[in-house]
Specification:
Pfam families: HerA_C (PF05872). By secondary structure, this protein is an alpha/beta fold. It binds adenosine-5'-triphosphate and magnesium ion (MG). Magnesium ion (MG) binds next to helix 2. The site of magnesium ion (MG) has 3 residues, from helix 2.
């Protein structure tokens, strides 16, 4: 058998699916596209994936192609759009000569299509407002967003535990600031008795960092109404999955905010979705662009958590796809779990680049048809090395693939088009409302007020009976609440504030 015949046989056998599948493009040999479709079974799309490649090689268009194909199979998509170049999926594309040429080569018909899109935002930008509560974030992620060291993170854990024990919800940053103040002043002894001593310099640092976070615009993000995961799973009236785009352009320079949000969302999805086991097709597929931001400077604890979530979320029918320039940005423990790999061209400028190319090629199945390392630097734009999992879960043979073109617009939406989507959106209205129900802030304010009132009453009694020694009386009244000297100092500061009014 000739090499070409042999190649055709292997690709056809490797990429034939019995069940539902999506077509990515056509397999290539010696730089030529053959009429051989690279087909991926829906069944293994919850086994996660990687889309990598140098800048401008076609990663975003590949995600657009994947999203379109998934949506048409009734699978909703969540896209973390950091560069803001994904919104065009809401409008039909145009058939241009270079697209016709590409699609003729791979023998896939091209028909321009628009998709149902929701635009979501973490900030003031128009769209569906994504909010989360501090409690939902949990101590590990909240510490990460503040960039805390181990000692400081320990204090955050105590605060979460304390609020949990006292049934005080931590909704927004106002709540956690109030608790921080409380535990260094009025509640100092209550905390140290039950949870151990907390240094005021540590709480001071944490408070400063919370204020910095507020200045970065996080106040709009923390609070209620918090986003309901079910709203990501919508199917439109034509039975196509919604493509949910989180527009992150305005927090590009705040990678901690974005990455922590992303991890929180994954954790929420994991917690809330029912166990599915083996699925015929995923319930939701998530694309994370600039994925290196999630792993940068992540602590060991956090990396372990990410690895675990990625491992477990599969059985909830959720596929997570990381997009990054250099595949080495993804930690080994995560990389090992990825079923679909789409590697666009890499550039070999520096020694580091060459090392990345070597390592990347080692991560792909060997092929008698390709010199992987050479191919990695010679792939054209919109071409990629693909390996997936077949229906039995076995890696497919390596296929250099000419990707199909997106059927939706390969450019962004205009401001008017964005406004029209948001006006029509049911979710925008649903999440526009800002709630502020009773939480730690209000509860602690009441508690402190109650203490102050008691002190003032005693003060009043003393004046009436002309009893001497204010300090003594204050001491006694407070002793009823908590028998401790430093608590009185706290109460004093409250008293001073009351008296100044
Ligand atoms: N599948 C494709 N079909 C047709 N054209 C494509 C395809 N993929 C990429 N292109 C062309 O290449 C350009 C760059 O692609 P894309 O924006 O996807 O690159 P990228 O890898 O995401 O770059 P960056 O790292 O800068 O985000 C596109 O604007 C388009 O013209
Ligand atoms: Mg891109």
């Amino acid at each position: 058998m000739s090499t070409v015949e042999n190649f055709k046989t292997q690709i056809t056998e490797g990429y034939t699916c019995k069940g539902e599948s999506i077509v990515l493009g056509g397999a290539m040999l010696d730089g030529e596209a053959l009429d051989l479709h690279v087909t991926i079974p829906l069944k293994t799309l919850n086994r996660h994936g990687l889309i990598a490649g140098a800048t401008g090689t076609g990663k975003t268009k590949t995600i657009q192609v994947l999203s379109e194909q998934l949506s048409q199979k009734g699978i909703p998509v969540l896209m973390m759009d950091i560069k803001g170049d994904f919104s065009g999926v809401a409008k039909a594309g145009e058939e241009k000569p270079f697209i016709t040429e590409r699609h003729t080569k791979i023998n896939i018909p091209f028909s321009p299509k628009a998709f149902s899109v929701e635009l979501l935002s973490l900030s003031e930008q128009d769209g569906v407002r994504l909010r989360a509560t501090v409690s939902e974030f949990g101590p590990v992620l909240f510490s990460r967003i503040l960039d805390l060291n181990d000692t400081q993170s320990g204090v955050i854990s105590v605060i979460f535990k304390y609020c949990d024990d006292k049934k005080m919800p931590l909704l927004d940053l106002k709540d956690i600031k109030k608790v921080m103040n409380y535990i260094t002043e009025e509640g100092k002894d209550e905390i140290s008795e039950e949870y151990g001593k907390i240094s005021t310099s540590t709480t001071g640092t944490i408070l400063r960092k919370i204020i910095e976070l507020e200045q970065q615009g996080a106040t709009t993000f923390f609070g209620e109404k918090s986003f309901e995961i079910d709203d990501l799973m919508r199917i439109d009236e034509n039975g196509q999955g919604y493509i949910n785009i989180v527009r992150l352009t305005d927090i590009q320079d705040k990678p901690k905010l974005f990455s922590t949000f992303m991890l929180n969302l994954l954790a929420e999805i994991y917690q809330q979705m029912p166990e599915k086991g083996d699925v015929d097709q995923p319930e939701l597929v998530i694309f994370i662009d600039e994925a290196h931001l999630i792993f940068n400077e992540a602590s060991k604890t956090l990396l372990d958590q990410i690895e675990t979530i990625i491992k477990l979320i599969r059985s909830k029918g959720v596929g997570v796809y990381f997009i990054t320039q250099n595949p080495m940005d993804i930690p080994k423990g995560v990389l090992a779990q990825l079923g679909l790999k789409i590697q666009h061209a890499l550039r070999a400028f520096t020694a580091n680049d060459r090392q990345a190319i070597n390592q990347t090629s080692d991560n792909y199945p060997t092929s008698e048809f390709y010199k992987t390392e050479e191919l990695l630097t010679s792939l054209g734009i919109g071409e990629a090395l693909v390996t997936a999992l077949n229906e039995k879960g076995i890696p497919t043979p390596l296929a250099a693939t000419m990707m199909r073109a997106p059927e939706s617009r390969m450019d962004i939406l205009t401001e008017d088009e964005i406004a029209t989507i948001n006006t029509k959106s049911k979710l925008v209205a649903k999440y526009a409302e800002e709630l502020d129900r009773e939480s730690a802030y209000e509860m602690l304010t009441k508690k402190i007020e109650a203490i102050s009132e008691e002190i003032s009453e005693k003060e009043e009694e003393r004046r009436e009976s002309k009893e001497p020694g204010m300090g003594e009386v204050v001491g006694k009244s407070v002793l009823k609440v908590v028998t401790s000297a430093s608590f009185i100092r706290g109460a004093f500061s409250v008293l001073m504030k009351v008296l100044k009014r």
